[in-house]
Write a structure and sequence with these properties.
Blueprint (H helix, E strand, L loop, with lengths): L14 H21 L18 H8 L7 E17 L3 E7 L5 E7 H4 L1 H10 L5 E10 L5 E12 L14 H6 L1 H7 L1 H23 L3 E2 L5 E2 L10 E5 L4 E5 L4 H9 L4 E9 L11 E10 L3 H20 L3 E3 L5 E3 L5 E4 H9 L9 H11 L9 H12 L8 E7 L15 E9 L2 E8 L4 H16 L10 H7 L6 E7 H9 L3 H4 L7
Parallel strand pairs: 3-5, 6-10, 14-15
Antiparallel strand pairs: 1-2, 1-4, 2-3, 4-5, 7-9, 8-9, 10-11, 11-18, 12-13, 15-16, 16-17, 17-18
Helix pairs in contact: 6-7, 7-9, 7-15, 10-12, 11-12
Length: 507
C-alpha cells in the first residue's frame, strides 16, 4: 500500500468518456506548447538530464526505514500510473518500463504555489514526467522523490485502461503496448523471451556453432510440408514464397563446410491459427556434421534445459497458472510404431496396408487426412491413441518414410526414417533428423512429393534443383533439428502462443 493508494475505478471509461478526456488532454497539450513557445521541441523536451532509473533507486534504497532521508538528490522519469491531488501535497506513482515504481511527492513547500497549481492542472494518468528531488522513504515506508522541480516529458492524449482490472486476452494481443504498461506478466514474458534467445546462442557458441541468416524470400518453398504465402517481386517479375523453413539453405552451408550452423529467424506458413499455431513464428534450426538424430536429441535437450535455467533458475519451471513442470533429467525416447501398437491393442508396422489403417481410423472416429498416404494416417492415429497420454518431455522416434522426404532411412528398421518429434506440455516442440545426404535418393523423394503436389497436396514439396546440385557436391553425415521459439516460451511459461509473441497477427 502506498501513500497514494485509493480504491480502484469500478469501470473502464466509455467511448464518450475517452472522447471527452482526449479533448481535455489536447487542450492541455496546447497549453504546454504556449508555455514552451521559446523552447525547441514543441510541447515536449527533446531530452532530459535523468541521473537515475527507477529500478536503480529501488535496488539502492528499497530497504529504507519509514520516514528516512538519504540526503541524495535524484532526477528520474516515469509514466504516471496513479495520481492523487490534495490541497498542499500531491502524490503520483511513476512507473518505469520494467514495471518498477517510485512515488513522487509534490508539495507546496518544495515547489511553490505556481508549480503545484500547474501539476494539478496539467498532469494526467499516462503522462511521462521528469522529477528532481531528494530520495526519501515516506511515513508509510514508500520509496519516494520529494520533488523540487518537475516537467512533463510526454503527454498521454488517450487515457490508460483501468490499472486494477484485467485486460481481456483480445485486448492484450490487439493493444500489446497497453498490456505492457498495465500487466507484469506481459513484461516478464518479453524478458523471458530475451533470456531464452540469449541462452540458445550461448549454448550453441559453447559447442562451436556459427549463426547465419538465410533468405526469407525464396523462389520456391521447401524444407517442410506446409502451405506457403506467395508474393510478387516487381524487380524480378516473378512470384516468390515467404519461407516455411530455412532447412535447404542451412544444408547448403553445411555442404560449403560450415559444419555446425544455426539460425534463429522468422518462418511463415499460410495455415490455421490456434493456441499452438501462428502464421508467422520464430524458428530455430541447427545442423551438425558427423552426428545423427540421437546426437541432435542430446543437443536439443541441453538447449531447452539451459533456456529453462536462464529464465527460471532451474529446470523445474513454474507456469502462469502456478503449475510446476519438470524439464530436467534425461527424456524418454519412444518408438512411434511400438507405442501406437501398444495403445491400439494391435500391431501396426510400416507394412500395415492403408485400407487396414483406414478401418482403424473409421472405428476410432479419426478423420482421414486429405491426400492420404500410409505415413499421414499412421501419424494421425498416433496422435489419437498416444499423444494425449504424454506428460513428461518425450522424444517420439522413427517416423514413416513417406512423410519425411528430407530424412535418412533408418539404419536397421525398414520403412521408417531416423526422425524424432519432441513433445512437451502436450504439443510438438521440436523435430530432429538424421539428414538425408544422398542426392540420388533425395531426388527420388522430391519426385514423389511432386506427384502429391500434382494431385492437389498444397503442402507437398517441389523439386529443388539448386539444393540437389549442392548435395551433389557432397554433404557429410549430419544431424539437424528445428524448434519453434514461441513454443519453447510456451513450454517454459505455460502461456498460449499469442501471449509468447510480442505482437501476434490478429484480424
Amino acid at each position: 500500500m502506498t501513500d497514494s493508494a485509493a480504491p480502484a475505478p469500478a469501470n473502464e471509461p466509455t467511448e464518450d468518456d475517452v472522447f471527452e478526456q482526449k479533448a481535455v488532454r489536447l487542450a492541455k497539450r496546447e497549453q504546454l506548447i504556449a508555455e514552451r513557445a521559446d523552447a525547441a521541441g514543441g510541447a515536449y523536451p527533446v531530452t532530459l538530464p535523468v541521473t537515475d532509473t527507477i529500478p536503480e533507486l529501488r535496488e539502492r534504497y528499497g530497504d529504507l526505514e519509514a520516514g528516512a532521508e538519504t540526503g541524495v538528490t535524484a532526477a528520474v522519469a516515469g509514466r504516471v500510473v496513479f495520481s492523487r491531488n490534495t490541497g498542499k501535497l500531491c502524490f503520483a506513482s511513476l512507473q518505469s518500463g520494467d514495471g518498477s515504481r517510485i512515488q513522487a511527492m509534490v508539495s507546496l513547500a518544495n515547489v511553490g504555489e505556481e508549480s503545484l497549481r500547474a501539476w494539478k492542472e496539467l498532469v494526467d494518468l499516462g503522462d511521462h514526467v521528469y522529477v528532481t528531488g531528494g530520495v526519501i522513504s515516506s511515513r508509510r515506508g514508500e520509496l519516494s522523490i520529494m520533488v523540487t522541480d518537475w516537467q512533463i516529458a510526454s503527454k498521454a492524449i488517450l487515457p490508460l485502461p483501468n490499472m486494477y482490472a484485467e485486460l481481456s486476452e483480445e485486448s492484450r494481443v490487439r493493444s500489446r503496448f497497453l498490456d505492457l504498461i498495465v500487466r507484469d506478466q506481459a513484461r516478464e514474458t518479453v524478458v523471458a523471451r530475451s533470456k531464452v534467445n540469449a541462452s540458445l546462442r550461448t549454448t550453441f557458441a559453447s559447442r562451436g556453432f556459427i549463426e547465419v541468416e538465410t533468405p526469407m524470400l525464396q523462389v520456391q518453398h521447401g524444407g517442410a510440408s506446409a502451405r506457403p504465402f506467395v508474393t510478387r517481386s516487381n524487380a524480378f517479375d516473378a512470384d516468390l514464397f515467404l519461407r516455411i523453413a530455412p532447412e535447404l539453405y542451412l544444408k547448403r552451408a553445411v555442404v560449403g563446410g560450415i559444419d555446425r550452423v544455426f539460425e534463429i529467424n522468422r518462418n511463415f506458413r499460410n495455415e490455421g491459427a490456434d493456441s499452438t499455431h501462428s502464421p508467422e513464428f520464430a524458428m530455430l534450426e541447427a545442423y551438425q556434421a558427423y552426428t545423427d538424430y540421437n546426437g541432435i536429441a542430446d543437443l536439443t535437450q541441453a538447449l531447452i534445459q539451459d533456456a529453462a535455467v536462464a529464465v527460471a533458475g532451474s529446470t523445474t519451471v513454474t507456469w502462469a497458472d502456478g503449475t510446476e513442470y519438470d524439464l530436467g533429467g534425461d527424456w524418454e525416447r519412444l518408438s512411434m510404431y511400438e507405442s501406437l501398437s501398444a495403445a491400439a491393442g494391435r500391431e501396426i508396422t510400416p507394412e500395415t496396408p492403408l485400407d487396414e489403417l483406414r478401418d482403424i481410423a473409421q472405428a476410432e472416429g479419426v478423420e482421414e487426412p486429405p491426400h492420404v498416404i500410409h505415413g499421414k494416417l499412421v501419424e494421425e492415429l498416433w496422435e489419437h491413441f498416444v499423444k494425449g497420454g504424454l506428460t513428461r518431455p518425450t522424444f517420439v522416434m522413427d517416423f514413416p518414410l513417406d512423410t519425411s522426404p528430407l530424412v535418412r532411412e533408418h539404419r536397421s528398421i525398414p520403412g521408417v526414417v531416423e526422425k524424432w518429434d519432441l513433445y512437451v506440455r502436450g504439443f510438438e516442440l521440436a523435430t530432429g533428423y538424421s539428414e538425408l545426404v544422398d542426392p540420388v535418393i533425395q531426388r527420388e523423394r522430391f519426385v514423389e512429393q511432386a506427384k502429391l503436389a500434382a494431385r492437389g497436396d498444397v503442402e507437398a514439396m517441389r523439386i529443388d534443383e539448386e539444393f540437389l546440385r549442392a548435395l551433389e557436391h557432397g554433404m557429410p553425415p549430419t544431424g539437424g533439428m528445428g524448434m519453434g521459439i514461441d513454443r519453447l516460451l510456451m513450454a517454459i511459461t505455460g502461456l498460449g502462443i499469442r501471449e509468447t509473441i510480442l505482437f501476434p497477427l490478429v484480424k
